[in-house]
């Protein structure tokens, strides 16, 4: 037996705190006096204490037969109020006390794998990772039927829009994060965002550590190398620093099935596929993140200054469809980002907390398309009439991003909380052509400014229920070049201002112990992103006049969790409703000379209805098994549209599925753990997991072909991971086989991904 009292650094009793033995089902909640009691078999454990508004604490404990251990623990207030994880299970945790439909993905079990942050996210219910190829390829995350720009990404509550492709989620190793929070649909005001689909918040480890070192290296198929190092320390005087660096490299020379152009006839048969190897798809990126500052002072709980540098190089193998192949086209770029973070609890008056962040990001991307030859998938080439495989260019896009966030939380008697958040972001892009001897910069820059303010009230008078209501104000200024006529021969500077109001509410109630219901609604707006307004200056074109999306979002979920001795069970089901107007859709457009590109357009009305189910079972510290199933109907809800004559005509695609959107998918995993394997404190673990995706059309089935020409087929991939951890995680070895049945895997517009692949990894971890 272990028992004790949980108090805060302010000498206050902490009731309703969750106390449990890590990796087991043993645990409980403190009573009104802050007392806890846990009974478990004798052994060595890690005791974890977490509570809303406080930093999580972990302590090593040793339970002895027939002895009662007393351990009082003091926990410090948490300056970031977004963390509300109070139930922990293997892999995915329910953010129990939050009224919002949210889960947290624990990355600790994945840190011995070669997964990146986007791979880890696929464990969350309703989440689907979409990639156009291998390492470093374009990536989108789909959440409950919404993908790409509908889902916003944050790191420790700071928005990541405009940071550049060299620092995206599919480049960052999973060890970078302590956990990943996923808010589905309705989003708390504290993020200050205009997301419609949801929010992903990467939470790094901010607890005070004397010193630590975490380093790893992996090698695998397609000449793929990944390395990572993270080290730092906090001194007694409060000075703290951390340096995090990582790199990825891959030839991405896997085989694909593609039509081959016959240069003699000038055409090819798209239905006749040939097994070929990718040959112009090398990718590498490098990044370093350094932070230094002061913690735990009377005038600042945390004051950190940071600097991030990242660089990337990417060969461009294909266009937006797989039949298009490039042999020399490539791009490279870098990003520089200084940053500042300040937080103080009980600022001026007790109960008032403030978090202030600011950063400036300068990223430059250079696109090079000057080849004098056209290539086919066999690597054969023939001279072009004019240089350029897609469109002749050697140009640099200089992007300047400014971002500032202010969050104020005011607690009143621990029952009421007011939250105010304001986000200011500004962007400017200058395009410079490098084709001539002297650089030529476009006369008209592309600019945008975005302000989002939010105010919420939260009532939490009982552990059984809580309620939040909020309002948001959105304002965006956009300026840039617009063609005077359809010929595009002359551009003039144009600008516009849009603003909107949004509001919503969320509540949760415990029907029975372990049985919880959550309901949330939001009148949401999503302002167009940089890519949607300005494109990527290469394969995608934007529309400066594109309108914001408007949506009514409803989320309802029911979850149940229970422990029976060594057995633990968790089941959750949720339904989703989204009624969206001016839906922003990415489409493929045919360009002159047989070229293709992507563009963004507003599409009338789109209705999303669906559900997802997840379940997990655990047996002590030895077994965890679970999975998720999602089905989402994302359908055209525009009954009438404007015809070529300007009159309203019936929409042939009415009630048809929105193309290029997966609507049914699932995943499943089984995890075995052999504790003290070989010697004490060693752990051998084996994981089997799979992903299933039902076939979907990448063109509208209502007006397109009825055969399988435009279908992404059913896919079912399987993966195995074997890890051996020595000396309580100090030394780690792992081996992975991904897609071991060598299934053909496809995604956006049927772009093919890698087949069977093998990876090995070594990792060391020192410190506390």
TrEMBL record:
Gene Ontology molecular function, alphabetical: carboxypeptidase activity; siderophore uptake transmembrane transporter activity
Membrane-spanning intervals of the chain: none
Domain TonB-dependent receptor plug: residue ranges: 101-199
Keywords annotated in UniProt: Carboxypeptidase, Cell outer membrane, Hydrolase, Membrane, Protease, Receptor, Signal, TonB box, Transmembrane, Transmembrane beta strand, Transport
GO biological process: siderophore transmembrane transport
SUPFAM superfamilies per UniProt: Carboxypeptidase regulatory domain-like, Porins
Membrane-related topology note: Multi-pass membrane protein
Keyword rRNA-binding in annotation: no
Subcellular location: Cell outer membrane
A Pfam family reported for this protein in Swiss-Prot or TrEMBL: TonB_dep_Rec_b-barrel
Cellular component per GO, a single term: cell outer membrane
Main location group: membrane
Residue ranges annotated for the TonB-dependent receptor-like beta-barrel domain, each copy included: 352-739
Family: Belongs to the TonB-dependent receptor family.
PANTHER family attached to this UniProt entry: HEMOGLOBIN AND HEMOGLOBIN-HAPTOGLOBIN-BINDING PROTEIN 1-RELATED, TONB-DEPENDENT OUTER MEMBRANE RECEPTOR
Protein name: Carboxypeptidase-like regulatory domain-containing protein
Organism in which the protein naturally occurs: Bacteroides muris (ex Fokt et al. 2023)
Origin organism lineage: Bacteria, Pseudomonadati, Bacteroidota, Bacteroidia, Bacteroidales
């Amino acid at each position: 037996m272990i028992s004790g009292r949980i108090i805060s650094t302010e000498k206050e009793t902490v009731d309703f705190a969750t106390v449990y033995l890590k990796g087991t089902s043993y645990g409980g909640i403190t009573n009104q006096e802050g007392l806890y009691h846990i009974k478990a078999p004798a052994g060595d454990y890690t005791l974890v204490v977490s509570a809303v508004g406080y930093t999580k604490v972990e302590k090593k404990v040793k339970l002895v037969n027939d002895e009662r251990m007393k351990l009082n623990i003091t926990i410090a207030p948490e300056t970031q109020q977004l963390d509300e994880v109070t139930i922990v299970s293997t892999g995915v945790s329910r953010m129990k006390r939050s009224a919002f439909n949210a889960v947290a993905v624990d990355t600790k079990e994945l840190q011995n794998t070669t997964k990146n942050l986007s791979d880890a996210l696929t464990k969350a219910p309703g989440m689907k990772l979409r990639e156009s190829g291998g390492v470093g390829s374009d990536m989108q995350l789909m959440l409950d039927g919404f993908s790409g720009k509908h889902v916003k990404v944050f790191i420790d509550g700071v928005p990541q829009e405009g940071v550049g492709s060299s620092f995206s989620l599919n480049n960052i190793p999973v060890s970078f994060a302590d956990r990943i929070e996923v808010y589905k649909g309705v989003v708390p005001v504290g993020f200050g965002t205009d997301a419609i689909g949801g929010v992903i918040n990467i939470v790094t480890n901010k607890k005070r550590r004397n010193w630590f070192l975490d380093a790893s290296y992996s090698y695998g198929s397609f000449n793929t190398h990944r390395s990572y190092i993270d080290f730092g320390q906090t001194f007694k005087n409060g000075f703290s620093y951390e340096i995090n660096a990582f790199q990825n490299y891959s030839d991405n020379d896997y085989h694909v099935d593609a039509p081959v152009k016959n240069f003699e006839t000038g055409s090819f048969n798209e239905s006749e596929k040939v097994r070929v190897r990718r040959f112009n798809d090398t990718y590498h990126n490098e990044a370093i993140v350094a932070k230094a500052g002061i913690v735990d002072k009377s005038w600042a709980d945390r004051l950190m200054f940071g600097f991030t540098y990242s660089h990337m190089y990417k060969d461009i193998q294909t266009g937006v469809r797989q039949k298009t192949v490039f042999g020399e086209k490539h791009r490279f770029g870098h990003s520089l980002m200084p940053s500042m973070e300040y937080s103080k609890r009980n600022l001026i008056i007790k109960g008032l907390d403030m978090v202030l962040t600011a950063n400036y990001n300068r990223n430059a991307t250079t696109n090079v398309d000057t080849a004098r030859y056209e290539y086919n998938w066999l690597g054969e080439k023939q001279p072009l009439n004019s240089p350029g495989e897609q469109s002749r260019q050697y140009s640099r896009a200089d992007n300047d991003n400014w971002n500032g966030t202010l969050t104020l939380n005011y607690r009143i008697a621990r029952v009421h909380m007011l939250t105010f958040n304001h986000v200011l972001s500004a962007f400017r892009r200058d395009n410079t052509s490098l084709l001539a001897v002297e650089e030529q910069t476009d006369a008209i820059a592309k600019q945008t400014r975005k302000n989002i303010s939010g105010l919420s009230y939260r009532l939490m008078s009982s552990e059984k229920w809580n309620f939040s209501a909020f309002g948001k104000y959105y304002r965006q200024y956009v300026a840039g070049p617009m063609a005077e006529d359809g010929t595009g021969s002359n551009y003039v500077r144009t600008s516009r201002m849009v603003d909107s109001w949004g509001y919503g509410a969320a509540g949760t109630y415990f029907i029975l112990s372990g049985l919880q219901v959550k309901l949330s609604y939001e009148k949401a707006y999503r302002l167009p992103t940089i890519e949607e307004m300005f494109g990527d200056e290469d394969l995608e074109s934007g529309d400066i006049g594109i309108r914001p999306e408007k949506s009514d979002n409803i989320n309802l979920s029911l979850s149940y969790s229970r422990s029976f001795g060594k057995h633990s069970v968790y089941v959750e089901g949720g339904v989703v409703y989204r009624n969206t107007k001016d839906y922003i859709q990415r489409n493929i457009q045919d360009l002159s000379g047989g070229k293709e590109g992507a563009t963004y357009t507003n599409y009338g009305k789109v209705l999303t209805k669906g559900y997802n189910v997840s379940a997990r079972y655990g047996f002590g510290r030895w077994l965890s098994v679970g999975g998720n199933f999602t089905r989402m109907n994302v359908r055209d809800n525009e009954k009438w549209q404007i015809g070529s004559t300007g009159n309203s005509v019936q929409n042939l695609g009415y009630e048809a599925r929105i193309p290029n959107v997966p609507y049914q998918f699932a995943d499943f995993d089984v995890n075995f753990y052999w504790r003290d394997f070989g010697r004490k404190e060693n752990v051998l673990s084996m994981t089997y997991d799979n992903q299933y995706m039902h076939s979907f059309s990448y063109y509208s089935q209502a007006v397109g072909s009825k055969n399988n020409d435009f279908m992404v087929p059913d896919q079912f991939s399987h993966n195995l991971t074997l890890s051996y951890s020595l000396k309580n995680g100090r030394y780690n070895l792992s081996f992975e086989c991904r897609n071991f049945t060598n299934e053909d895997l496809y995604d956006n517009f049927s772009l093919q991904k890698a087949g069977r692949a093998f990876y090995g990894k070594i990792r060391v971890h020192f410190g506390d």
